[in-house]
Amino acid sequence: MTAAAVTSRDAVTPVVSTTPLDDVPALLDLLPAAAALSWVRRGEGLVGWGEAARLEVSGPTALAEAAAWWEEFNAGLDVDDPIGVPGSGPVAFASIAFDPAAGTSVFVVPEVVVGRRDGVAWLTTAGGGDPVDVLTSAPAALPAPLGRLRYADGALDPASWCATVAAAVARITAGDLEKVVLARDLLVTADAPLDPRSLLVRLAARFPDCWTFAVDGLLGATPELLLRRTGRTLSSRVLAGTAPRGAGADDDRLAAALLGSAKDRGEHALAVDSLVRALEPYCSGLTVPEEPALLTLANVRHLATDVTGVQARGGAHGRVGLLELVGAVHPTAAVCGTPTAEAATLIGELEGMDRGRYAGPVGWLDARGDGEFGLALRCAQLSDDDPATARLFAGCGIVAGSDPAAELAETQAKFAAFQAALES
Ligand SMILES: C=C(O[C@@H]1C=C(C(=O)O)C=C[C@H]1O)C(=O)O
């Protein structure tokens, strides 16, 4: 575990201070070009920049270590938070590895956070950040045009990836497992550095129903909410089962076919079951709709189930924190498979790439234990070494009835979400 100390200009107790704001421009427009942090949907949420503290953590106890670090960080603060809503006061943005035991998870406490919730806006500064002029100093110059974009295959070319899907279907048919989510990556290089702020603005405009996120160079707009905690209320939006969009009446036909598809309904049920089974022990009540709904996005349509629960008081699970809950529910069968262990092993065997933080939980948490974590999907990891390059990710659930060519097309439709932001 590596943790940067909380910075404080005068080495006294670090102060975290929240101030109400009357008039705030669009949150994403405030972001500086570098080190953007974001969790925004329909103009509300949080953006941040600067680093008051940072934790990078990996290993079998990564999330427990992160929870202890966050608690310790907050214990040492002098907090002034007259607003007291989820996301005001001290906040950490987090991007957790798909496999937290093997990959690196990143937690960042920004120096500056601007938030908006139910129309109320605020500014929080931490670790010596100067609130004065913070909003007027943030905007940067317009980025250079990206020029020509060059794409290259990631770990597997399309034909090899289709062969891995066929191999997975064979393993499922043989009875080794029920479902596995297989992903692939695509490399993109532009003529000029990729500008996180303009990518986020375009993603948010095209995907208003998604959460537009950025943490430590992982940027995207995810439609899937792994877990939100507000007080004792827990909520989740589970997605699995995907169809392409069509034109005119064709689109309606595709929507009806998705709702009626036994293959997609089965795939979806496995994802909902995995979430519900993991969450149930922590809840005094859980509401699970019997039928999935359709979630229609610009590039694809999903089967969606919104689950809500009330976290139990008292007992062994009464004081469980948000990070522990996130660790308990992740990975659901929406991004891993069923059974979880067999699916995770098969992913390691077949995918041929390191998922890093793709398909891991991404979001934020505050000092009260409220927070929101989505799954890092429809995203790209910007390169640390070359600011003009990024790695895009897309995956799909494979079950007995999966057709490799259709799954490849599904990954292409999912890549298109980020590609539209690069190309517009
Ligand atoms: C794995 C991804 O998406 C997941 C897989 C889905 C599916 O297989 O139908 C749908 C939504 C997500 O849960 C991805 O977008 O990369």
Automatic annotation (TrEMBL):
Keyword Isomerase recorded: yes
An example Gene Ontology molecular-function term: isochorismate synthase activity
Pfam families xref list: Chorismate_bind
Chain coiled-coil ranges: none
Keywords: Isomerase
Reactions accelerated catalytically: chorismate = isochorismate
Keyword Protein biosynthesis recorded: no
EC numbers: 5.4.4.2
Superkingdom per UniProt: Bacteria
Domain Chorismate-utilising enzyme C-terminal: from-to ranges: 159-414
Record-stated family: Belongs to the isochorismate synthase family.
Record protein name field: isochorismate synthase
Organism: Geodermatophilus sabuli
